[in-house]
From TrEMBL:
The lineage of its organism: Eukaryota, Viridiplantae, Streptophyta, Embryophyta, Tracheophyta. PANTHER family: OS05G0241400 PROTEIN, PROFILIN. SUPFAM superfamilies: Profilin (actin-binding protein). InterPro entries: PFN (IPR048278), PFN_sf (IPR036140). Pfam families: Profilin. This is Profilin family protein. It comes from Arabidopsis thaliana (Mouse-ear cress). It comes from the Eukaryota. GO terms for molecular function: actin binding.
Amino acid sequence: MDSAFVDRAWDKWVTTGNVGSSGNPLKAAILINYDPTGPSRLLSTIAKQEGIDIYPVDLKQFIDFMRRGNLPTETFVLGSNQYIITSIHENWFAARCLNTSQPAGEGAIVMQTAVYVLVALYDGSIGSASQAMAAVDQFASQLSRKNF
């Protein structure tokens, strides 16, 4: 795996107005090394993160959730927020935060590539979700070109 390519692609994606400050489609993003076919004793690691401080131990429940594959029947936790799945697609799903304090709500888009899971968090509703999905798809397509 070409980690230098991933580093460059992530840095370019983050700095071109996709993640972080107000006005960007995403408030935070996490790129996780993830092999669903690997043994469960192999820990998934955080490859990159922006806009959120989360530790690998904080991802255990989320990774267990992903491995179980019961997307429509369970919730998952990221940081202090609990999410419920609202739509499931071939290699990604969308979720809404159950315990948000934001008036317009919060959401997450989770996209799986060959060796990564990209978790993107956004504030807002339908329009914000569309913008977030476009930003996530932009980065995921870069990874897919290299079979990541």
